[in-house]
């Protein structure tokens, strides 16, 4: 098979302009619709050098304002306390070590390093919370204005000001979160890791109930192979009203009478009117590979382990969850809000079989189907190409009894690499009944499809295309999926060498049908980074507007959000960071030069 030219790949996706931007986008083609409504947000990790996973990077937050027939862009680097600490440690001049004996002897223990995966860690300070994955909008209970926080799977969310894009406060005091620590060693008791930046395992996709104003957040403790049972698996649901403390409930598996045990991740949770849906998602967090990068990757489970938690029981204390198993793994999923009093819970899944998004391209990877040809170095650290068809699934469940009433799935022969969906309204909220889902698809690119992962999933129980029949190329683009009819209603493919990144649904002012709205997406082209706009009900027509600016340069985008209006944040809720991260707490025993970073650079960023 002839090698594919690198010019056929979207080669410009690992670089990002991390400067503060505040500018008007220019029209390259078409006209800007004058009736777009609201404000759209994107969260984009900044890839590091080498083969570090692209998802392991500082976040860059973008906002588009649709106003007066123009489109304004604002962008800021999203700097949480641990990110600021990392940056300031790296700015320390080398000669400062010569005048500080503690820093000279132990300074390296405080530097953040990339481990063998998605973590960046300091041996003495803890795990970096980059908040680089997803966004959750919600209404302020005091004045009904919109607020928003950024998330990651391994840390507390951070709320930010919608106008400045600057982080303001973590969501939840440190004491309200269960950190990943060793607990319950006989005769020794709990062992508290002396990290000022502990790891809090959560889910990047929280859930929001627009009817009650409640935000639902998951907090898990995972079993780690090296802990030899010293870390006891546990799962909690936090309910937050945007004002006060969490209402926290421990989730118990009805079958085992023990806390729900997550083995892979809880990348997303969802709600219905009467239930919270937890899935052990196909984004395996391999703690062993964080310490030993050469350990062979483990395959994702081909089955979804699901727990259905009655919302009426989330009153603190414990809640009993029914456990069911359904086939065909997923990372992202959605629910209809109406559930027929639990008798007809509808679950929509983005089928992930044939794509392991917890992996990344490494220096030693060989391109499938060759034995010796390396993957292109421009894409070291990138999410790998897919190695089978994807699509959507739909499951009808009696949540009261745990009965799986029906299941349907549809795999796409034409649309490979189904990626990051959007739908009308507030992302993370459940619509009464999902009518349309818009999603980008990355296609199939053999040049970034590694042999080791094709072989790892060669005997996947739901494999559609035998590995020897994998194509050389499948187009990239965007499509509209109907969960009601279980079919693709509309699609459009981009020219080879470009890729459609994460889309967001933007409504039309005064619309009466969601197909009257717009889809806006980041698009990477050979000429640079652009924002394109489609009519939501007519993707096949192609983009109606293409926007650019010479200063705008974004990397591989993750998730998005939209709100109808923004205003400066005036909410009373705020965690006191000086107490939450008390540098004088003897538990942390921090040296003076680290305390100075907090006093001079971190605390002032979050003081009133």
How would you characterize the overall build of this protein?
There is one protein chain. This protein is mainly β. The protein has a single domain, classed as Methylamine Dehydrogenase, Chain H (7 Propeller), CATH 2.130.10. Helices cover 8% and strands 34% of the residues. The chain contains 6 helices and 37 strands. The protein has an 8-stranded mixed beta sheet with strand order 15-16-17-18-22-21-20-19, with no helix packed on it. Strands 1-5-4-3-37 form a 5-stranded antiparallel beta sheet, with no helix packed on it. The longest helix has 15 residues, at 592-606. It starts with 20 loop residues before the first strand and ends with a helix.
Short description:
The protein has 608 residues and is mainly beta. It has six helices and 37 strands.
Write the layout of secondary structure elements.
Layout: E1 21-24, E2 26-30, E3 39-45, E4 59-67, E5 70-78, H1 81-90, H2 101-106, E6 113-114, E7 120-122, E8 126-127, E9 134-139, E10 146-151, E11 158-160, E12 167-170, E13 182-185, E14 189-191, E15 207-209, E16 214-221, E17 234-240, E18 247-253, E19 269-271, E20 275-279, H3 287-291, E21 303-310, E22 317-327, E23 330-335, E24 345-351, E25 391-398, E26 403-411, E27 418-422, E28 437-441, E29 444-445, H4 451-456, E30 473-474, E31 477-482, E32 487-493, E33 499-506, E34 518-525, E35 528-535, E36 545-548, E37 560-563, H5 577-580, H6 592-606
Parallel strand pairs: 18-22
Antiparallel strand pairs: 1-5, 2-36, 3-4, 3-37, 4-5, 6-7, 7-8, 9-10, 10-11, 11-12, 13-14, 15-16, 16-17, 17-18, 19-20, 20-21, 21-22, 23-24, 24-25, 25-26, 27-28, 28-31, 29-30, 31-32, 33-34, 34-35, 35-36
């Amino acid at each position: 098979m002839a090698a594919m030219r690198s010019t056929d790949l979207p080669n410009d996706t690992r670089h990002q302009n991390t400067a503060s931007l505040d500018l008007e986008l220019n029209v390259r083609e078409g006209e800007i619709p004058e009736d777009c409504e609201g404000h759209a947000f994107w969260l984009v990790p900044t890839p590091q050098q080498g083969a570090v996973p692209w998802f392991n990077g500082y976040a860059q937050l973008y906002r588009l304002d649709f106003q007066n027939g123009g489109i304004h862009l604002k962008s800021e680097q999203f700097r949480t306390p641990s990110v600021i600490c990392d940056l300031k440690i790296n700015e320390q001049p080398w000669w400062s070590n010569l005048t500080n004996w503690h820093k000279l002897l132990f300074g390296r223990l405080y530097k953040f390093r990339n481990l063998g995966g998605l973590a960046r860690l300091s041996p003495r300070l803890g795990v970096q919370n980059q908040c680089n994955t997803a966004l959750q909008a919600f209404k302020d209970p005091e004045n009904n204005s919109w607020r928003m926080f950024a998330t990651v799977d391994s840390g507390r969310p951070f709320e930010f000001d919608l106008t400045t894009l600057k982080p303001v406060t973590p969501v939840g005091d440190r004491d309200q979160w269960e950190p990943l620590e060793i607990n319950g060693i006989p005769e020794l008791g709990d062992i508290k890791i002396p990290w000022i930046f502990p790891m809090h395992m959560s889910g990047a996709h929280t859930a929001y109930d627009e009817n009650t104003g409640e935000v639902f957040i998951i907090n898990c403790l995972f079993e780690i192979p090296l802990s030899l049972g010293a870390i006891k698996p546990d799962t909690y649901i936090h309910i937050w009203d945007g004002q006060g403390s969490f209402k926290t409930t421990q989730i118990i598996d009805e079958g085992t009478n023990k806390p729900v045990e997550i083995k892979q991740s809880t990348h997303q949770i969802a709600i219905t009117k009467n239930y919270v849906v937890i899935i052990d998602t196909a984004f395996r967090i391999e703690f062993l590979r964080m310490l030993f990068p050469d350990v062979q990757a483990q395959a994702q489970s081909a089955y979804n382990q699901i727990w259905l938690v009655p919302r009426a029981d989330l009153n603190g204390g414990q809640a009993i969850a029914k456990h069911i198993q359904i086939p065909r793994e997923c990372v992202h999923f959605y629910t209809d809000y109406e559930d027929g009093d639990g008798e007809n819970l509808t679950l929509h899944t983005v089928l992930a079989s044939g794509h392991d998004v917890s992996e990344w391209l490494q220096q030693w990877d060989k391109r499938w189907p060759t034995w010796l040809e390396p993957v292109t170095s421009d894409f070291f650290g990138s999410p790998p190409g897919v190695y089978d068809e994807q699509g959507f699934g739909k499951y009808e469940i009696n949540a009261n009894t745990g009965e799986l009433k029906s299941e349907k799935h549809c795999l796409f022969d034409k649309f490979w690499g189904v990626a990051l969906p959007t739908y009308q309204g507030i992302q993370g909220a459940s619509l009464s009944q999902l009518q349309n889902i818009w999603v980008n698809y990355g296609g199939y690119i053999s040049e970034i499809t590694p042999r080791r992962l094709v072989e790892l999933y060669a005997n996947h129980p739901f494999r559609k295309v035998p590995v020897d029949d994998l194509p050389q190329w499948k187009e990239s683009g965007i499509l509209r999926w109907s969960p009601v009819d279980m079919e693709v209603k509309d699609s459009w493919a981009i020219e080879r060498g470009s890729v459609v990144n994460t889309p967001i649904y933007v409504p039309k002012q005064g619309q009466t049908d969601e197909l009257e709205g717009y889809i806006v997406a980041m698009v990477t082209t050979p000429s640079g980074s652009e924002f394109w706009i489609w009519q939501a009900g007519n993707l096949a027509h192609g983009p109606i507007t293409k926007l650019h600016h010479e200063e705008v340069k974004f990397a591989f985008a993750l998730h998005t959000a939209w709100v109808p209006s923004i205003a400066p944040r005036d909410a009373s809720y705020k965690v006191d960071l000086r107490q939450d991260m008390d540098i004088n707490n003897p538990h942390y025993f921090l040296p003076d030069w680290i305390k100075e970073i907090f006093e001079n650079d971190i605390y002032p960023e979050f003081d009133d």
